[in-house]
Design a protein that fits this description.
Chain lengths: 454, 435
């Protein structure tokens, strides 16, 4: 009796509430100052905490690796952080940053190198001077490179332990071939073993001119405080030419054998778009609906409906030149063929108009992801660094909400028809050949299978 | 960033200004409200004072399995609808389970606040009514896959399963890993779910934090409407074990599908917020916080033995673990690595941390902590963590940074001695022989 009464009360009280209108938001736009020969300085003041996030982005990513030296750009970036600068040895550089309560984190991708740190605002001038030394006066001593090289080689060897990494590297190589986006960014054991300090120094001299360097500061500072802290530029340099547009090849099916693997890593995709595409907003929305959240079509199908995987996703990767589009998942070996079939069907299905709910969901999820990133100064700086590296205006994030709002079903359908092409899909599988090959052969769209070894 | 101001940036008196409204409903639910209007988003974090330490014998892994079942739907919000409602309006959710607590959060545009509160209240009041064996079976499989993916098949993952078993006696509630065993997961039943829910998922065993862009007066009305009607239920009893200790050194050797050997050293250390806990955070930074730390400079720069080294004070409510985790470079053995680490630990007695090292460690730890609570989700979680650990979320502003202020070199040296001179557990993971 008592329980029934309580339940009745609960039923009345726990009615689903109405959803008030969506709050409006516009991303802030930082100030930019470019001196005649100096680095670009981008500042977004935020004075709530006495902390500044500093991120240096250098347009010297792994797409600039010479064809015979994959891994060179990454090696240079590592030696900036871990190779000594000016009068300081590597351990001394680390100690100097530590005295300021901070240390450098390094990131490299196809388009850029990022060095970032977080520092109390009172230590900003000293941190900037040190960072400047690291970028402008790297030592590239032989003994430091020997030490760093040994660790890099271990990192490359350990990558073989991780089927996800094998699948990512293989997919990029199959899709891009000899294009600069097709090689492993850490390099190979052969290329890194052969890399000399002269090559490191020459790469740095060519691509680390201040014209190629941007300092992004988010936090408790302003333009004036920064301008005085960075010495004049000794070494101007110019922006490297963007990589050529990749050419689409014939779709391929490639299998890398991992005997006995309980899971297969699958990658299904084709060339996507360059970051500068006017369809950026539409493609970001489409990738979210297809494979960008828990309730995306791919995850609901492969994980929730079929139980093939712990999670499935899809995305357009954004670079200066055309990046890839692909879906990815780690799936049980015995359902590899079925999972690929469902993935291809979901990609094809995106060419029909979305539901109105999906359009709204995609728009709002994209927006909330950006809102949340802007709460964190380091992530905010990273969002601006990507714009600089991809040669996009710095007001792009503030314009995105209106662009998303302007998308209707006709616009997303047009974008899907152009950028999602089920007949062009390249398929890469890292898994147990004995179990997987018959499953692939049974798929109607698989004509020929190529086999590779790691 | 939270709307917080440091009273001083000189690291003399590092209290945060973090205005909170905190109160308790008659049924025992603690409510913490923190308004911050810089971004149009809001987070709800609901934490229950229950974790793997509260599991009964033969049901290891159950608290975490239960967390998964909280997403399996109710009469009003059937399976799958929880996520589709949230994501359909631009939000997302997640949850986590530790030895001590279970945490659920939602984050999204600020207009979702009423929806977040409704969804949490709905499952807190009606979850068991629609629990079925099929739901338990489904999540049992998901969790077993998680165990395979995160521990059994992850490089070095097996060491994580061994640590608690070797550090704590079988009778200690921290003896088993949070993920549990396959056999115990198999044993979990619908009756277990209902009993666990009735005992632990009661308002008096939880606190709810709302943080972000909302109006406190309106939030209070919503919380009153959704949660205040729930009846008062007894505060469940909790396991409150005494601090554990190793009476002699212990050693385990494992093999794994990895390229490089790894050495893990583990000591018992002071429980969260007890004397010595903050000191252990700084000690971890002195030994392994970044490239300037003692172990990095010695093992990576000087001796070129280690591929990586990490040091961590891993806290829990009834006893913490102080861990050194180092991976050898190829061409070097675990024995070389272990003896080099032991050498540095001996050196710590000969040359205790200098004031300069303590200053660095303090700045390193405090800057990192400040950065962490820039994330709205992490701030809400941190507020609830302080509520759970210290019984008052206001303690975050008072102690989050300031608890490191008074530590000086002699004090740090004394704690280093107390913790590291006790017997330790050493786990060595060797690469499997190549087939």
């Amino acid at each position: 009796m008592m329980k029934a009464l309580l339940l009745a009360v609960a039923g009345a009280i726990l009615a689903r509430p109405p959803l008030p209108p969506q709050p409006a938001w516009k991303a802030p736009v930082p100030s930019v100052k470019t001196t005649a020969s100096g680095p670009r300085i981008v500042v977004l003041p935020q004075h709530e905490l006495p902390v500044v996030h500093v991120l240096v982005t250098i347009a010297a990513g792994s797409a600039l690796d010479p064809p015979n030296r994959p891994g060179l750009a990454a090696a240079v970036a590592t030696m900036l952080q871990d190779g000594g600068a000016g009068k300081r040895s590597a351990p001394e550089v680390a100690q100097a940053f530590a005295d300021l309560g901070t240390e450098i984190e390094e990131h490299i991708d196809l388009d850029q190198v990022q060095l970032s740190l977080t520092v109390l605002s009172r230590n900003l001038p000293r941190a900037l001077a040190l960072l400047h030394e690291v970028v402008e006066e790297p030592r590239f001593d032989k003994s430091d490179w020997q030490r760093a090289r040994a660790r890099r080689l271990d990192e490359i060897r350990r990558r073989v332990d991780e089927p996800e990494h094998l699948a990512d590297d293989l997919f990029a190589h199959v899709l891009y071939g000899d294009h600069p986006y097709g090689h492993p960014f850490l390099g190979t054991v052969e290329s890194v073993s052969a890399t000399t300090v002269d090559e490191l120094r020459a790469f740095w001299a060519k691509y680390y001119g201040c014209g190629n360097v941007s300092y992004i500061l988010v936090g408790d500072t302003d333009e004036r405080a920064v301008a005085g802290a960075l010495p004049a530029c000794a070494h101007p340099g110019a922006w490297p030419a963007p990589p050529p547009a990749p050419k689409a090849g014939k779709p391929r099916v490639v299998l890398l054998d991992r005997p006995g693997a309980p899971q297969s890593q699958i990658r299904v995709g084709h060339l996507g778009a360059a970051r500068g595409t006017p369809d950026f907003a539409a493609l970001t929305l489409l990738e979210t609906v297809l494979g960008g959240s828990f309730t995306s079509r791919l995850n609901l199908n492969l994980r929730e409906k079929h139980g093939y995987t712990y999670g499935a996703r899809a995305s357009f990767e954004w670079h200066t030149a055309t990046g890839p589009f692909f879906a990815s998942a780690g799936v049980r070996t015995d359902v590899t063929g079925a999972a690929i079939k469902e993935t291809v069907a979901e990609i094809a299905g995106m060419r029909a108009p979305l539901s109105a709910e999906e359009l709204t969901k995609g728009r709002l999820l994209v927006l909330h992801t950006i809102v949340e990133a802007f709460a964190d100064g380091n992530e905010t700086a990273g969002y601006f660094a990507d714009l600089i590296a991809h040669r996009i205006a710095l007001d792009a994030w503030s314009k995105l909400p209106a662009q998303l709002a302007a998308l209707d079903l006709a616009a997303t359908t047009r974008a899907a028809e152009r950028y999602l092409r089920p007949d062009d899909l390249t398929i890469v599988v890292v898994g147990d050949r004995k179990a997987v090959e018959p499953q692939l052969r049974a798929l109607p769209f698989v004509k020929e299978i190529e086999f590779v070894t790691p | 960033m939270p709307a917080a101001l440091l009273a001083s940036v000189l690291l003399m008196s590092t209290t945060l200004s973090l205005p909170l409204e905190r109160y308790t409903l008659p049924n025992g639910l603690v409510v913490v409200l923190h308004e911050d209007h810089r971004l149009p988003s809001v987070v709800v974090d609901l934490t229950f004072r229950v974790g793997s330490k509260d599991e009964r014998a033969g049901r290891t892994g159950f608290a975490h399995l239960f967390e998964h079942l909280m997403f399996m739907g109710t009469r009003a919000v059937p399976n799958g609808v929880f996520d589709s409602i949230l994501e359909g309006a631009g939000g997302y959710d997640n949850a986590s389970t530790t030895e001590d607590y279970t945490n659920y959060f939602e984050s999204g545009p600020s207009n979702l606040l009423p929806t977040f509160l409704w969804l949490e209240a709905d499952r807190l009041s009606t979850l068991p009514d629609d629990m079925t064996k099929a739901k338990v079976d489904l999540q049992r499989d998901v969790v077993k896959n998680e165990r395979r993916q995160s521990y059994e098949n992850r490089p070095y993952g097996r060491a994580e399963l061994v640590l608690p078993q070797k550090l704590y006696a079988p009778s200690h509630p921290y003896h088993h890993p949070v993920i549990g065993s396959h056999a115990d997961l198999d044993a979990a039943s619908v009756a277990d779910v209902k009993a666990f829910f009735r005992q632990f998922y009661v308002p008096s065993n939880a606190s709810i934090v709302v943080s972000g862009d909302f109006d406190a007066a309106q939030a209070k009305k919503l919380i009153e409407q959704y949660f205040a009607w729930m009846p008062k239920r007894p505060v469940p009893p909790h396991a409150a074990p005494k601090p554990a200790a190793l009476d002699k050194p212990a050693r385990v050797r494992l093999t794994d599908a990895v390229q490089l050997p790894r050495v893990v050293m583990a000591w018992h250390s002071p429980a969260a917020f007890l004397d010595g806990d903050a000191d252990c955070d700084l000690l971890a930074a002195v030994l392994g916080g970044g490239h300037s730390s003692r172990l990095y400079q010695s093992l990576v720069y000087d001796k070129k033995l280690a591929e990586s080294v990490e040091v961590e004070q891993r806290t829990s409510a009834y006893g913490s673990e102080f861990l050194i985790i180092a991976t050898a470079q190829s061409g070097h053995t675990s024995a070389e690595l272990e003896s080099a680490i032991a050498g540095e630990l001996k050196q710590l007695d000969v040359t205790p941390p200098s004031e300069r090292e303590v200053e660095r460690a303090r700045a390193f730890v405090q800057t990192k902590l400040l950065h962490e609570i820039e994330s709205p989700v992490q701030l809400a979680e941190a507020l609830n963590y302080y509520e759970m650990r210290l019984g008052d979320a206001n303690q975050l502003a008072a102690r989050y940074l300031a608890r490191y202020d008074a530590i000086d070199a002699p004090r740090l040296a004394s704690w280093a001695g107390k913790v590291l001179h006790a017997p330790r557990l050493t786990v060595v993971i060797e690469p499997e022989a190549r087939k």
